[in-house]
Amino acid sequence: MARSTSQLYLDGVSVSFDGFKAINDLSLTIDPGEMRAIIGPNGAGKTTMMDIITGKTRPDAGEVFFNGVIDLTGEDEASIAELGIGRKFQKPTVFESHTVWDNLELSLKAPRGPFATLFHVITGAEKKRIEELLELIRLGEKRDELAANLSHGQKQWLEIGMLLAQDPKLLLVDEPAAGMTDAETAETAELLKEIAKDHSVVVVEHDMDFVRSLGVKVTVLHEGSVLAEGSLDHVSADERVVEVYLGR
Ligand SMILES: Nc1ncnc2c1ncn2[C@@H]1O[C@H](COP(=O)(O)OP(=O)(O)OP(=O)(O)O)[C@@H](O)[C@H]1O
């Protein structure tokens, strides 16, 4: 697909650590409003790819564009977040000693330095947005609960809600189902599908049942580049994918 109409565009991206090519001529395009699952063995370069997109790691070569025109290799982490790329790390990082509601309120995108945050009076529109987020992340009943008292899965959902409060265009989600109960995993797939109705989403995941339930195009990474791409059935039928990953 053309760069100009893409949400995220990587072309010929490489990065080495001490001479080892963690990302090797990687090319990948995500459409606006697309959800994509990224799978691949340990060390395939999934985390490094996310680090490059979010400005944590600079590529040695290649192009990385957001919204078709914004060269991310020229931006730092803070400005990339500001541009509308949200990243959810594997481990939830919510404010444990605050309530669910306050976690969301503190995350809302608003023009606020330290003083604005301290003296900010929440508007009706902001309250409505928090209500919407609470419903989406299945925590309406837990709004007054301290985040510390949530289950692992609920903390993951809260953090996803906190990212959404920033109004990102693209959400990068690293192994959301890890450590979740089966019921939470199934609910997380539904949640991501709802989010993908109006965001682009990139999900890295090892749980193949979870990936199947997302029902989206899958990219298999291996040794820093794309080994296969297509539906889960398509890539699962690829002998090379079975050999390096699925057959293990
Ligand atoms: N900062 C770094 N310095 C040196 N080597 C690194 C660095 N970051 C990543 N690597 C190496 O690059 C390779 C790719 O790692 P990466 O973490 O991106 O893989 P991954 O696909 O995310 O794996 P996993 O599924 O285990 O999370 C690995 O061999 C890793 O050891």
TrEMBL record:
Residues 8-248 form the ABC transporter domain. Coiled coil: none annotated. It comes from the Bacteria. Keywords: ATP-binding, Nucleotide-binding, Transport. Pfam families: ABC_tran (PF00005), BCA_ABC_TP_C (PF12399). The keyword ATP-binding applies. The keyword Transferase does not apply. InterPro entries: AAA+_ATPase, ABC_AA/LPS_Transport, ABC_transporter-like_ATP-bd, ABC_transptr_urea_ATP-bd_UrtD, BCA_ABC_TP_C, P-loop_NTPase. GO terms for molecular function: ATP binding; ATP hydrolysis activity. GO terms for cellular component: plasma membrane. PANTHER family: CONSERVED COMPONENT OF ABC TRANSPORTER FOR NATURAL AMINO ACIDS-RELATED (PTHR45772), HIGH-AFFINITY BRANCHED-CHAIN AMINO ACID TRANSPORT ATP-BINDING PROTEIN (PTHR45772:SF8). This is Urea ABC transporter, ATP-binding protein UrtD. It comes from Roseibium alexandrii (strain DSM 17067 / NCIMB 14079 / DFL-11).
